[in-house]
Amino acid sequence: MGAKGFYLEIKHIDKTTGARYGILHTPHGDCEVPMFMPVGTLATVKTLSPEEVKSLGAGVILANTYHLHLRPGEDIVAEAGGVQKFMNYDGPMLTDSGGYQVFSLADNRKITEEGVTFKSHLNGDTIKFTPEKVIEIEEKIGADIAMSFDECIPYPASYEYAKKSTERTYRWAKRGKNAHKREDQALFGIVQGGDFEDLRKWSAEELVKLDFDGYSIGGTSIGEPKEVCFRMIDYAIKYLPEDKPRYLMGVGSLDYILEGIAKGIDMMDCVLPTRIARHGTLMTHNGRINIRKEMYKRDFTPLDPECDCYTCKNYTRAYLRHLYVSGESFGARLLSIHNIRFLISIVEGARVAIQEDRFKEYKDEILKKYGDKRGF
RNA sequence: GGGAGGGUAGCGAAGAGGCUAAACGCGGUUGACUGUAAAUCAAUUCCUUCGGGUUCGGCAGUUCGAAUCUGCCCCCUCCCA
After folding, report:
1. Class of the A7-271 domain?
2. pTM (2 decimals)?
3. Would you name the residues of A annotated as active-site residues?
4. Least CB-packed of A50, A126, A147, A352 within 10 Å?
């Protein structure tokens, strides 16, 4: 049966799109969906304190199994009392399984049926990840939601490779499910299948038979064209149960988020807002801004006048530019606060719109104003 | 007045006869970033109608060829009077 204290309560379905509004109940509290989840790979959302992350309206935040296994090691996290205690964050958390690292660290790993052998990017150590081992680590880290170990398939991938990998990911999911014992921790399966309709269908249907607590759509937003990402969602989502959370992995640009929600996605995560903030790029209601530009030198207006975040309410573009150009860490923090709050506030607006059956209009309006064809 | 060292692109700073429109850094500009090996990376930065054109304090020379050698001049810094 499902994890204790973990379930999704669907409250309303938008009549214009089918977008879902609901409450996700977790051992560390309830949160509304759809939601955007900030990423804190190393048990910290870079530059932000847990209190700040909370104040931005974050529901779930992520941490990463591979990275925490390497440093400090899951035993230390367990000894601290679990990841939430360790990092002093009292909200719901999710650990990614390391499946993304199979993709992003492809030069340093080898895949077999048994699992994946990584060469540590820190010191070259050989790290053996099997689905069972990953579950063991995730149970020790102790987030509310654990992800099955998968391979994030690169794009483009041949049908032959996608099939082989997707079937293997399914077998890994099954092994992980069998190994998973913690009752206070939800376990999600990850749909793969590349850009192939039959593989996505197969992957979704087979995973659903294993009865996970939630399902994610993986292998998305790794450089594929937008339409490809959107159809990968379409290929899979219709086979996922209505009453379980649906998580679109790695999506953090405005158009992907809103489109995902329209298609019935409940959860999304991405490093984008925090990473591009550290690189000086900010998302605003009127499109992207790069704060490093000289034109902001004497701009004493807020970053985004329509934003309700701490940064926009208290600081000017001129000051933010100054901090960024000077390499001051406070700048990275203020900019991260803004980008995360911006995305979360957009999603908050989406929740209201869904409940009022006007999500399509809401989405079109936001995107039109934002302007950027890429959405971020 | 005597002595020493300098003046190189927006700034700092290499270069000491051809391979130099001139390293490198800063500054400027433009991109990229999507389950974080990323507070990172890439491109561009004299002018140009893309054929070329004009440069290394100034002028005049030496040389097939000069930012680089010679002469004079103008500035700057330091030391001694």
Report:
1. alpha beta
2. 0.93
3. 96, 269
4. A126
